[in-house]
Amino acid sequence: MDDYQKYLNPLTLASLQGLDLQARAVVEGYVSGMHKSPYQGFSVEFAEHREYVPGDDVKHVDWKVWSKTDKLYLKQYEEETNLLTYLLLDTSESMSYAADGNVSKLQYAQFVAASLAYMVIQQQDSVGLATFDEQVVRYLKPSGQPSHLKELIHIMDTTPGRRKSDVGMVFHDLAERFKKRGIVVILSDFFDDVPRIITGLRHLRHRRHEVIAFHIMDPDELDFPFRDPTLFKGLEGLGEILTEPHALRRAYKGEVDAFIDELRRGCQMIDIDYVPLRTDRPLDEALSGYLASRSARVR
Amino acid sequence: MPFDLGILANEVLPLLGPLYALGFVNGAMLAGLAAASIPIILHLLNRRKFRERSWAAMRFLMAAIRKNQKRIRLEQLLLLAIRTMILVLIVCAMARPILDKYRPILPGQRTHRVIVLDGSLSMGYAAADQSRLDQAKALAQRLVKESRSGDSHSVVLMGSPPRIVVGGPSANPTEVSKEIGEIAQTHEAVDLIATFEAVERALAASEVRQKEVVFLTDMQSASWRVKPGGEDGLKRAVAKLEARAATSSVIDLGALGGNNRAITDLSLDAPVVTVGGPPPIVTATVKNFGRSQAPGVPVQLIVDGNLVEKQFADLAPGEERAISFATGFSAAGDHLIEVMIDDDPLKIDNHRWLALPVRDRLRVLLIDGDRKPEAFEAETDYLAQALDPVEDSSASPSAIKVEVASESQLRGRDLSAYDVVVLANVAQLTAEESGLLDAFLNLGGGLVVFTGDRVVQENYNRVLFRDGKGPLPARIGPTLGNATDTSQGSFRFDPLEFRHPIIRAYQGAAPDVVSGLTGVKTWMYHKLEPSKDSSAITALAFETGDPAVLEMPHGRGNVTLVATSADAAWGNWPLHPSYPPVMEQMIMRAAAGKLAERNVPVGQPLDQAFAVSADGAPVSVVTPASRTVARKLTADGDVSRFHFDETETSGAYRVKVGPPVTQEVLFSANFDPAESALDKLTEKDLTAVVPNWNFRYFDDWSKLMEAPASISKQGEAHRPLLWAVLVLLFVETVLAWVFGHHR
After folding, report:
1. Are A74 and A50 in contact, with CB atoms under 8 Å apart?
2. Is the peptide bond before B691 cis (omega within 30 degrees of 0)?
3. Is this structure's pTM higher than 0.90?
């Protein structure tokens, strides 16, 4: 079990080949660390009897009742709640940024998305996937079939990030597409105007989805550790800037902190779980965030 | 060899106003200023050498730049400026800049150093065992001892006049130190202009380019001042000194104490003292220059070495009090009067001397221009009777002995035997007679001239007045009034408030006594017309405003001219009681010239004329320090002259002349009372007193004793520059940390 836990480290995980294997390693590593199986809470429980009518599956007939009363009654179980989980993966160009010796934000998001998908399907829930940049790139409807996982991973693996993001617009689009309510898991750096993002999220909430916003940032983007004069070449076509980073560090961090703070408060206002993620941190933080939200949904 | 940025100094620096001219010892090092471009080049290179990085969070970076661009640029420029300045300062320090105002003495070059010691009286102030002059000498000797090999020294003593003790610069420190050690305290004031001129002459005596002047002084206000009107002279002297490009330093020898008492004046109430005359009143003025009460100051009168009288004076701070003594003299000859008070830290000014020639009787020759055998008919009868009233009587002889001669006898007389010659209504004088009178006046004799009906105006004006150059105080003008018809009116005297000494006795006298002078009627007088620039003083006038009696010094003697006759022909003055005393005073004052100049200020020469026959006679002078100096009389026109200028010490100078003429003459020299005031100048005051003089001021002489070489090192700016570099390095480090790491 301990061997699995090391796969919570993004760098170790990156050494594994195949996102499906990586997802399984993450989930197994995470579950082994919990000492208590999450599956126990999902056993099927008896609810009531009803009289047999022709056409009913005989395997559900309560033979003990038949032996006593000579009537056919069916055991009726409480219907299992089939949760829908939508994974929204930002594949815009900004997500391709990676600090030296680190995984990219997209890679990290893929780990998280794959792990969640794996876990969801293991729980016999349904999971869907949408990748987006300035628009929805791919959309795979939710399904609980084990084979669905492979398809999900394939889409995630092959989606390149090249364009800039328009998160707000995408959320509006998806809010219209998601017919059944479920848990919407967003994996993005949210490099867009916060009010537009919040408007989009509000749309999702309006459709009564539970939303978890995984805000994925690279440690470079948070700490701005550069010293030498640097020509910053903007991704998503944002131009170039030559500057001395050490002179700007405080101001830059101020801007980033203000952005994060605004996003967090926006999420809180519409009852969205905001989970900041650094790409140099273990993945269990992401899974914990998801599970906490799911259990709230189940209750 | 110092490298001067001549063009910079000549053309640019004047535009910068008060900034000091700048020179560099190692001017070639200034080429290193190119290194100042290194930070700028590095800065530019750094801007070209950068890393490239793809960046996602551009929106935050752009916002940060937008808000902080100005600040960042300012910080970068500030650091760039500091780094550039550090290099500039280091290069400048290596070039060893020199501020011209404080041009230092540079090692490795020969220096001609002029040491100027303040030799004035106040330098005798000794609060402890050592006087200020002793301190100055000790420091001067240290300076000489610590000088570099090859340096040469001159030594000037500030005084009045200043003395060049070591003129031709001496490269022998032992010799110079010995000369300094032998400098004696003078009792003089300071002639500041002459001192600067003497220093400039001393500087001119050497070809050595690097020159330094070091003044060692107590900064006494009285010493560092110029007489009114002397400002331009001082400016010229200072300009000449500055033109020598010498480095000047003033070393203040410390605070002067406040306690000093001095005798500031000693005088007699009579111009001439005779054995038979009334005892003169000796008046000593004592002043307390201190800030505390001086109770019971003993004031002693000593005559010829014997204590005659002692009085006590209580002196408040700053109080000046006159103490009077009456003393008679029983024998003719020169007497020495000394007044002294008790000792204080400045002992020199506690004594004052008066050399007093006491005459047996004054000898007066009356030349009568209208001699007649009948009593009181001759021109001089009244005058002779007034001056020597006891003639032909049994009473004690008068102080004045009168001889009467006719005008034809003037040429045959040896005038040197007389103190005063009176011309009374003498018709005219020949050029030879006029020459005799000139010689007589040059010996200090007195001449009194009365006019009258026989006087030939043209002759007097030509022979005696000589357009103001002769002995006569005024041109003899036309007569006014009528002596033959007294009914036409008379003229009365205007005593001019009795200001002149010959009539001062009437000041405050009873009206009936005063009327003895103001009631005099004059029927006729000559209008006296002094020249415009005449030094003649009107002693008595007529109510018309015309002078009645004029007095004027001439040669070494005094001349008195009376506008009317000596007898009763032109007025009734001889019949009035005021005539004898006024005539006596007139004669006494005329005679005073011969006895004058026995008392001189220290530093001024002793000067005495003898008959021409004494030319070449040996003279020995015994100074107050009991030093005997030999001199000779020298011919000077119609007299033989004794001249002695080594009077730097106050006290009695005893002069023995002869043979062939054997004579002893007593002189005294006294200090300038201004020297007793111990007020000091500050550095700022000195700058005001001696404008345009660039000097460095040192007030801690005791430290300089330990490190005299530090005097010469002032003006080198490289040390402050290196300190500035150190400070800038620190500032740069702090700012770089703040700008770079604290973001």
Report:
1. yes
2. no
3. no
Q: Do A238 and B52 touch (CB under 8 A)?
A: no
Q: Verify whether the Cβ–Cβ distance B61 to A218 is below 8 Å.
A: no
Question: Once rounded to an integer, what is the mean pLDDT over residues A214-243?
Answer: 86
Helices (H), chain A: 2-5, 10-14, 19-34, 63-69, 105-122, 146-158, 167-177, 194-206, 219-223, 245-269, 284-298
Confidence of residue A99 (pLDDT cuts 50, 70, 90): confident
Least CB-CB distance to B743: which of A96, A229, A246? Answer: A246
Beta bridge partners of B716: B98
Per cent of chain A over pLDDT 70 is: 76
pLDDT at A40: 34
Q: Which of B42, B45, B50, B58 is the best mutation test for A, with the most CBs of A within 10 A?
A: B58
What residues of chain B score a pLDDT lower than 50?
1-20
pLDDT of A143 above 90? no
| CA dist., res. B41 & res. B398, Å (int) | 107
**Contact at CB, A231 and B52, closer than 8 angstroms:** yes
Q: Which residues of B touch A233 (CB under 8 A)?
A: 52-55
* pLDDT at residue A26, as a whole number: 64
- State how far the Cα of B116 lies from the Cα of B138, in Å rounded to an integer: 13
**Min Cα separation B88/chain A (Å):** 26
Closest CB from B57, B740, B743 relative to A191:
B57
Q: Which percentage of chain A shows pLDDT scores above 90?
A: 17
Region label for B183, one of left (φ > 0), alpha (ψ between -120 and 50) or beta (otherwise): beta
Rounded to an integer, what distance in angstroms lies between the CA atom of residue B281 and that of residue B269?
6
The CA distance from B327 to B571, in Å, is 39
Helices (H), B539-617: 579-595
> According to DSSP H, which parts of B610-717 are helical?
683-689, 701-706, 710-713
**How far is C-alpha B722 from the chain's CA centre?**
48
Residue B167 CA to residue B205 CA, distance in Å, equals 7
Is the bond preceding B161 in cis, omega lying within 30 degrees of 0? yes
Query: Taking Cα atoms as reference points, which of B348, B281, B422, B297 lies closest to residue B133?
Result: B348
Pairing of strands B628-632, B634-636: unpaired
Q: Cis ω on the peptide bond leading into residue B659 (within 30° of 0)? A: yes
What is the pLDDT at residue A62?
Answer: 83
CA distance B591 to A260: 117
**Interface size, chain A vs chain B, as Cβ–Cβ contacts under 8 Å:** 104
Q: Between B56, B63, B739, which is nearest A221 by CB?
A: B56
Taking an 8 Å Cβ-Cβ cutoff, which residues of chain A contact chain B?
Answer: 93-97, 105, 189, 191, 218, 221, 226, 228-236, 238-239, 241-244, 246-252, 254-256, 259
Q: Does B57 touch chain A (CB under 8 A)?
A: yes
pLDDT at A37 over 70: no
CA distance B333 to A243: 107
CA distance A252 to chain B (A): 5
Spatial neighbors of B653 by CB under 8 A, at least 6 apart, are: B606, B621, B622, B623, B624, B644, B647, B666, B667, B668, B669
- Closest CA–CA distance from residue A81 to any residue of chain B (Å): 41
Q: Which residue has the tokens 């009627």?
A: B521
